[in-house]
Design goal:
The protein has 348 residues and is α/β, with parallel strands linked by helices. It has a single domain, classed as Alpha-Beta Barrel (TIM Barrel). 35% of the residues lie in helices and 18% in strands. The chain has ten helices and ten strands. Strands 1-4-6-7-8-9-10 form a seven-stranded parallel sheet. The protein has a three-stranded mixed sheet with strand order 2-3-5, with helices on one face. Strand 9, helix 9 and strand 10 form a beta-alpha-beta unit. The protein is globular, with a radius of gyration of 19 Å. The two termini are 30 Å apart.
């Protein structure tokens, strides 16, 4: 099904990536939630959940929709499962995000290559069932490196470039499947700021090389889980990490940058450092169950408009919503759409 030619409104809405999975697919309200089914039953259930995620977004009034990452247990490891050279039986506990928390991660044991397409099934299914612009997310190279153990390359940059080549292979295929926007998720960027401005962006450039779709990068302070909330409490009254690499991002070939804004302590004026980019302004808090009012969402958009051109602003969620209660996530999507509509009345 082709993308709709209908006019996209000013301040279009979208999600950062993940949505909660239905309880019949995976254990609710958890990251790394175990699947409820296996084999062909699991594959069919993932299809059903993908269609449901599209329907929920469309009913809520979201303009640029995604698959909700319904076919992936985790945003990084869902990609790695299709990569040869990774041993999932050789999991080791490592500190990730600069030791913010520990996770059991698979080990790179040999040269990396894709065994097959990674996300063809869900991308093609989503494309066939929506006329809206379709967005698809992939983990960024730096974040993959930060979420795997290395017993082969011996160098983070070499391993990142190897992963970037695989991401490029899949991204090219996703664009051929009809995906309009491909976003790379890089929460590691605001942990390793100097590296992000250097080889982190170089790896993203390798990942988007020759990809016939809009490219984006999502950067935020993480899911609304305890480890992230506790870490954010240590960052002080202003979160200035973005200033260290936003100028480099502004010079990059990436088209869009997704930033956590509502209820964060990121000074809104740092958005002007992204001049020339589409900016996905996070106006929905994924670390709290409180449902935002339309007024609150419009207020975030209005504040961002002081530093982002009106035709460059996209209203978004702060981060993925995978561990959130599903009923709350749906209400937050509706709040995002109402708030963007209110912003159009005021500022459009």
């Amino acid at each position: 099904m082709p993308t709709s030619a209908a006019h996209t409104p000013v301040f279009p809405t979208t999600i950062a990536g993940s949505l909660p999975k239905p309880s019949w697919l995976a254990a609710p309200n958890r990251l790394w939630a175990p699947w409820r089914l296996d084999g062909e039953e699991l594959a069919t259930a993932k299809d059903d959940a993908t269609l449901l995620a599209l329907k929920l977004q469309e009913d809520a009034g979201i303009d640029i929709v995604g698959d909700g990452e319904q076919s992936r247990q985790h945003f990084v490891h869902g990609f790695l499962e299709a990569v040869e050279g990774i041993d999932f039986d050789r999991r080791v506990e490592i500190g990730i995000r600069n030791n913010r928390y520990k996770a059991m991660c698979p080990t790179v044991v040999g040269p990396l290559r894709l065994r097959s397409r990674v996300h063809a099934r869900e991308a093609r299914l989503a494309r066939a069932h929506t006329r809206k612009q379709l967005k698809f997310t992939l983990p960024g190279p730096m974040t993959i490196v930060d979420t795997t153990a290395d017993a082969h390359y011996g160098d983070r940059v070499k391993m990142a470039m190897a992963f970037a080549a695989l991401l490029n292979e899949e991204a090219r295929s996703l664009a051929a499947d009809g995906v309009d926007v491909i976003q790379f998720d890089e929460p590691a960027f605001n942990v390793y700021m100097d590296e992000a401005a250097g080889w982190g962006i170089d790896a993203l450039h390798r990942a988007i090389d020759g990809v016939a779709a809009i490219s984006g990068v999502h950067i935020c302070y993480g899911y609304g889980i305890a480890a992230n909330i506790e870490w954010k409490a240590t960052l002080g009254s202003e979160w200035r990490q973005y200033e260290k690499f936003f100028p480099a991002l502004a010079r990059s070939r990436i088209d869009q940058v997704s930033v956590e804004c509502i209820n964060s302590r990121v000074p809104v004026h740092v958005l002007e450092l992204l001049d020339g980019k589409d900016v996905l302004v996070g106006a929905i808090d994924v670390a709290a169950d409180k449902i935002e009012s339309a007024e609150e969402v419009a207020g975030v958009i209005g504040a961002a408009l002081k530093y982002v051109a009106r035709d460059k602003l996209i209203a978004c969620t702060n981060c993925g919503m995978a561990p959130m209660r599903r009923d709350i996530a749906v209400k937050k999507l509706e709040a995002l759409a109402r708030g963007a509509a209110l912003a159009r009345q005021r500022f459009g």
